[in-house]
Amino acid sequence: MNSSASAAPPLTAQPAKLRPETFRRVQRFIYETAGIDIPDGKEVMVTARLWKQARKHAYSSIEEYLSGVEKDGNDLRGGDLLAGLIDCLTTNYTSFFREPVHFDFLRTRILPHLRDRGRATIWTAASSTGEEPYSIAITLLEELGALAQNVSVLATDISTRALRSAEEGIYPEDRFRGFPEEWKRRYLLRGTGARRGLLKLRPEVRRLVEFRRLNLMEGLPPEGPFPLIFLRNIMIYFDRAVQERTIAAMTSKLEPGGYLFIGHSESLNGIRHDLEHVQVAVYRKPGGLKERARS
């Protein structure tokens, strides 16, 4: 961040479109850093979003802002400028129990096998602001009761900003629209005073989840193999080569018989992989015991 500036510079006219060399610079940097493929034809969109970020961080031009981001991106911790660039170029939409059929599958076809096996970890590889891993944690508590303490959730993301928000576990009340009232009483704390209108996940939910920064382009977590990996709604930003490398990496981290969940808007069609298709957006690594529906 341009910390030496106390306020944004005088407003100047926003360029109609990035210069071709600057657009290529953005494409190359975001691809090499996060695997995100920005196709040609997106110059106007990228210009508008980067200009907004440049103004926010008190840079006088997009080029100056990009220099700051590139320096920030060389920090393995992935600072706020890099997080902001990634966030502004991706949709970042998430919600609690998004794509509920996955949580039905988790509840009926996977958790029965984890109930008595001892310790296990579920990995969410693009956890964003935490709604996905917390949804898994609530499912664990609902289905396993006291045995939920034997199953943890590793939640990773490239964005330090998203992870800080996720670790707090605090969300506006309208984010829980559709939550059963008994779940609200059981798993949420209601804010008062200055925090009126906010809800916080109770400690028993948050302690099941470990948040950690991880750039999938740089490596994989040392833990594993995992019985289940959530890799949802991130591959839409990757080109075919990065998709194949990512799926191969996820497969290497699945235990035999383990499952990979991808987003319902995504597909592995046309991607070389060694997984078995189970149902829409659900894949299984061969081997191990076949899943058994709970009676």
Structure commentary:
This protein has a 7-stranded mixed sheet with strand order 6-2-1-7-8-10-9. It has a 3-stranded antiparallel sheet with strand order 3-5-4. The longest helix has 15 residues. Helix 2 packs antiparallel against helix 4. The termini are far apart. The protein is α/β, with parallel strands linked by helices and 295 residues long. Helix 10 links the parallel strand 7 and strand 8. It folds into 2 domains: 70 residues, Chemotaxis Receptor Methyltransferase Cher, domain 1; 185 residues, Vaccinia Virus protein VP39 (Rossmann fold, 3-Layer(aba) Sandwich). The chain is globular, with a radius of gyration of 21 Å. It has 10 helices and 10 strands.
Helix content: 25-40%
- Total number of strands: 10
User: Can you give the mean pLDDT?
Assistant: 87
CATH domain class of the largest domain: Alpha Beta
Q: Tell me the major beta sheet.
A: 7 strands, mixed
Q: Uncertain runs with pLDDT below 50, 5 residues or more? A: 3-11, 291-295
SSE-based structural type = alpha/beta
Estimate the strand proportion.
15-25%
As for the number of domains, it is: 2
CATH homology superfamily of the largest domain: Vaccinia Virus protein VP39
Write down the Rg: 21 Å
Helices, by number, come to 10
Shape: globular
Order of helices and strands: HHHHHEHEHEHEEHEEHEEE
CATH architecture of the largest domain: 3-Layer(aba) Sandwich
Q: What's the arrangement of strands in the largest beta sheet?
A: 6-2-1-7-8-10-9
CATH topology name of the largest domain, in short, is: Rossmann fold
- Our measurement of the CA-to-CA distance between the termini, rounded to an integer number of angstroms, reads 56 Å
